[in-house]
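Pilot study result, target chain (298 residues):
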Amino acid sequence: MAKHQIPTYTICRLAADEAVQKELIAERFPHYLDTHQHLHFPHRHSFYHLVFFTKGAGKQSIDFVSFPVQPGQIYFMVPGQVHGWDFDGEMDGYIINFSDTFFHTLLQNTQYIDQFYFFNGQAAESVLQLPVNIQTEITALFEKILAEVQQNNDHMMDMIRTLLLQIFILVNRVQVTTIRQKQVPQHNYLLLRNFQQLIEKNYTQLKLPKEYAALLYITPNHLNALCKDVLDKSAGEIIRDRILLEAKRLLTNADMSIMDIAYQLNFADNSYFSKFFKKYAGATPEDFRKQFDHTYNK
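Predicted structure:
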C-alpha cells in the first residue's frame, strides 16, 4: 500500500500574486523552480500548464511517460495529468499556468482551446521540439506576457489571453505541418480527435469500438482503419490505453483500495480489473503502487 497520496495543486496554492492567483501564473522558469522545488515529485495540476525550455537538460514525466528535456522544447498539460521532473544543470525558459475558465470571458466558444492537438491529454502529442525560427517568435510572445504581468496595465488579462492564443496558434501550425508531411488527410485527424474526446467523456461506460463508431456515424472497420493509419494502434487499444492510464492515476491515491478503483472504472469485479491491469501494464496493481511509492519516496 502506498504511503502517500499524490498531491493536486491549484493555482491559488502555487501563486504568490493575489491579483492573478485565481486564473494565471506567468513566470520565468528558474524563479518558478526556486519557489516550488517540491514540484519535481509526481503531482497533478487542476489547471492548464505549459513550459517552454530555452536552456537545460534532464527528463520529465507526463502520465508515466518519460521525455528528455532540451532547449527549444515546449510542452502542454491539461488538468488531471500526473507530472514530475528530474532536471540536470541550469534551467531557463518560461512557465504559464492558467485556469480552465481563463478564456471564457474572451471567447464565446468555451471549448475553443480543445481544438489544439497538444491539449488533447495525450502525452506523446503534448511535447514538441520547435523549429529555430518559431522559437524566436515564441520567446518574444512569452516576454510580452511577462511584461504585461509586471506592468499591470488596463486590460492586462485580455492582452495576456490574446498573446497566449498567438502561442497556441503558432505551435499548432507546427503540428499541422508535421501532420501534412505524413500525408494523412486533415479530416482523418479531426475524426480521430473527436474519437479521443468521446473516449475522455465515456471511457468508464463505453469500452467497445463499435459503441464509439456509432456515435461518430461511421463503421467500426472505418474507425479501426483510421486509428491504425494515424496512430498505428487499433481503436480497441486506444480505448484500453485511456482506461489503463486512469487506473495508474488512481493507484497513486493511497486512500483508494484496488476494489474501489475497479468499481470506479466500472469493472465487473476486483479480479477482472487486476487481470486487465497486469496484462496491459505488465505488473499487478499492487506492484505498480509499490513501485510508484518507492519512486515517490526515494
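One observation from the pilot: The chain has a mean pLDDT of 89. A full batch analysis is planned for the follow-on phase.
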